[in-house]
Write a structure and sequence with these properties.
The chain has helices spanning about 5-15, 85-90, 270-285, 320-330, 335-340, 350-365, 370-390, 405-425, 425-440, 450-455, 465-470, and strands spanning about 35-45, 50-60, 65-70, 100-105, 115, 125-130, 135-145, 155-160, 160-165, 170, 175, 180, 195-205, 210, 220, 225-235, 240-245, 245-255, 255-260, 295-300, 305-310, 310-315. With about 475 residues, it is of the alpha+beta class. The longest helix has 22 residues, at about 370-390. Bound molecules: zinc ion.
Length: about 475
């Protein structure tokens, strides 16, 4: 996610106050598991703001198990999905409750029972009739009805614009002999996504346009419904934004189709060129874009932007310069989230610091040195003000530590960690190490140690990253 810069707000308040091994890597003696496959049929009913979803999941058990755990992220919307200070930005008419109702669960065998909300309201536990062995393939079919909240967030609507992500049940990641069932925090991106394959059939009112994680294979009309079919391989998630007011333009960067969907942008051709140039620049620096297409869409959103595999949201209210920066940040996440996954709950710096670094690299190699300097100065100032009030803190800020300091450490100090290295070694050397990191961990979930290993030859100081990441030292 791209966070809006809260420095002025921060000053105002001052005045007023006076990842371990790769998760998907099997033990050496074990055969790799098949990728999980989601077949999703969803229909949006705009008069009731509901989404009817049937999800068939083909899943291979990662060890001997008698139950499978999934996430129903729509249930996070039973409560405010943002912190109290952001409720007015996220909820245009005040808090509005959303939820997910499970209509039925069936499968390739009898499923005796299920529970929702034992660990977290978003966690669904499906018990199996008998204990199954590692490598057994299960098919689960879940019918759900989602009541969408009126919220400018990852899942919800505002006016006639609908943002649909996390609308289907997702198998929980499996780590150290058990499922991960992390709290859904109302800040940061509280996810750890492994790659999966998707086959999505989406029925929308016929007047609606849709921007999605992949391009539609076909579009047919049935009465008042337009039905699009998508297939997307090895993606972290499938997401979509639908609105009757979206227009789009398309271009290419090498083999990648680039699309820009917009509601209001008089300079749409410049914006599309920026998206294309971002893909071209990051491909040259970090390796190939991981998907056949990349789409940016203007949408109602409470922050500057949000990344998904193959799709990025930018807040439709941003100014042109804010929009450009948000596009660069979210496009960079196609590498630092899409291509190389990371644990965004425990190690949120791992994708955010690299996305922030990538933005400044883009400006630097397009000779916009004044923007680079200002961004570094702003990040330094914001962190120093935070540290003077709350004390120094390391870059690594797990979401469990709370929202206070999350932006100042993860984004601002994380950016300074990467830029300081680029000032010593040069962008080319840093990018060469990052490219080796993406090549080695493409489509996997990389641990912090995997990142450190890729970076180890960049500096003669063996403690460089440990100091920044884990030690609460002041800036030098
Ligand atoms: Zn981000």
């Amino acid at each position: 996610m791209r966070k809006t810069f809260p420095f002025l707000l921060f000053l105002f308040l001052l005045l007023c106050l006076g990842a371990c091994a790769e998760l998907s890597t099997p033990e050496p003696s074990e055969a790799p598991l098949r990728r999980t496959r989601y077949e999703i049929e969803a229909e949006l009913l705009t008069d009731t703001h509901t989404l009817n979803v049937t999800t068939t999941i083909r899943y291979t058990l990662p060890q001997d198990l008698a139950a499978v755990k999934l996430r129903l992220y729509a249930n996070a919307y039973q409560e405010a999905v943002v912190s109290p200070s952001k409720v007015s930005a996220a909820y245009p008419v005040g808090f509005d409750r959303g939820w997910c109702e499970v209509v039925s669960i069936s499968g390739s065998e009898d499923l005796p029972s299920y529970d929702i909300g034992v660990e977290d309201p978003t966690v669904l536990t499906v018990r199996l009739a008998s204990k199954h062995k590692r490598g057994d393939e299960l098919t689960l079919s879940l019918r759900t009805v989602i009541r969408l909240a009126n919220v400018k967030h990852r899942l919800g609507y505002d006016s006639d614009s609908y943002t649909l992500s996390g609308f289907y049940p997702v198998i929980c990641p499996f780590e150290d002999g058990k499922y991960r069932t992390d709290t859904y925090y109302p800040y940061g991106d509280p996810f750890l996504h492994e790659t999966s394959d998707f086959d999505v059939t989406l029925a929308l009112p016929v007047n609606m346009e849709a921007a999605a994680s992949s391009l539609p294979l076909d579009l047919r009309t049935e009465g008042k419904r337009a039905i699009r079919r998508y297939q997307a391989a090895e993606m972290r998630e499938f997401a979509c934004v639908a609105s009757p007011r979206l227009l789009y333009r398309e271009d290419r960067s090498g083999d990648v189709t680039v699309r820009y969907y917009y509601e209001k942008d008089s300079k749409y051709a410049e914006t599309l060129a920026c998206i294309r140039e971002a893909v071209t620049t990051f491909e040259a620096a970090f390796g190939s874009h991981p998907y056949p297409s990349f789409t940016v869409v203007q949408a109602p959103f409470f922050e500057a932007g949000m990344e998904f595999s193959g799709l990025a949201i930018v807040n439709k209210e941003l100014s042109a310069s804010e929009r450009k920066r948000a596009i660069l940040h979210e496009t960079a996440h196609e590498w630092w989230h899409g291509k190389v996954g990371s644990d965004e709950v425990r190690h949120p710096w791992q994708d955010e610091a690299l996305a922030e670094y990538s933005v400044l690299y883009f400006y630097a190699c397009h000779h916009e040195d004044s923007i680079v300097k200002k961004a570094v100065d702003d990040a330094t100032e914001e962190y120093v003000i935070y540290a003077s009030l709350k004390g120094d803190a390391p870059v690594s800020h797990p979401l469990s530590l709370g929202e206070d300091g999350y932006v100042e450490t993860t984004y601002r100090k994380g950016l300074l960690m990467m830029i300081s290295l680029a000032e010593i070694k040069g962008y080319d050397e840093v990018n060469r190490a990052l490219r080796a990191y993406t090549d080695r961990h493409a489509n996997a979930v990389a641990s912090p140690d995997a990142f450190l290993e890729a970076m180890q030859d960049l500096t003669d100081d063996p403690d460089y990253f440990d100091r920044w990441l884990y030690t609460p030292l002041p800036l030098e």
